[in-house]
Amino acid sequence: MQPHASGTAMDDAELRRRRADYHREWTTGTDRFFHPKAESCPWCGGKDIGFRIRLTDTRQCKPGTFDMDECASCGHIFQNPMLTGTGLAYYYRDSYDGLGRDHYGSVAEYSSSAHRRRVRLFDGMPRPGQWLDVGARHGHFCREARKFLPGTKFWALDQSPEIVHGQQRGWVDFAGQTPLTEFAERHAGEFDVVSMIHYLERTASPQSELDAARRLLRDGGAVLIESVNPASRFARLHGRFWYCWMAPQNLHLIPHRNMCRLLTERGFEVVRVQRGPANKPFDNLAALLTALNHHLPAAKSWPWLSRAVRPAERWLRRAVMALASPALGLAFVLDLLLHVPTSRGRGGNTYRIVAVARLRSDSPW
């Protein structure tokens, strides 16, 4: 969970160049990073919105603060003011590719069991011929899913060029960096399943993205959605250090009831909902690591930092992390113990939904 504990090696010249680029982009002015502040809920249009929490980038520790507001009418939580495409590009840079490629890849290797649980949601259903994974990152989900679905063709979309490397590695059959709304115009009705795993909460308009997914599906096809559960008790318990805020990348935190209602309005029938079983047992461990990462000097002299990290600061970080290891171990054990009752209930930090497009009376779904 520790953000960017490792990364791609840089020589001094490359580090200076990247630092100059980051510095120039930040000092040019950040007004272009944000839309005007919204006066109403982007989900239901309600005017009764209020401040929920102020966050920082505790993952990469890039500069900036981000306010999350909450709608009293529907419970939707959203970034306000919201990042523009330019702002998102700044904060995504070196997160999943570039300097962050190796770190993300190593973390993603531990997600195989979660990928298998996602695929099992389709047990007893017809084997899909064409599956599109949106926001696929490096393609780890497709790599795991194809082990259980031989013969299924996996397509993957992501803004990062890493997904093209995923195709070269044979993890996906077809890869693209085209925005979903544009992709849907050219491939309407071609897919049996569209998966959106922690994707919708990172888009400016989840409604438009879901409309695009519906256009891509054949009648009787299914959409798989996995999203952060903003009703998790840990959101308030851990405050700004709750890992699932994922600031500033998560623009929306959507209550599961809102998502189910939207799916119904868009011509879907919700057939499976996982709440407790979708929980990821890392809340306490991730919160502690996030807090440490926020308060301690950076692990490396990342180019977006205002200055290089001094040797003494690096030693301080290592010493504190070593002293914190018993607490980290205890947090890990606590997460595993709490996962048992959580997975049997309706809480947890994540939910999954499978919904079918225009469910027909003779549909095997």
From TrEMBL:
Keywords: Ubiquinone. It comes from the Bacteria. This is Ubiquinone biosynthesis O-methyltransferase. It comes from Kibdelosporangium persicum.
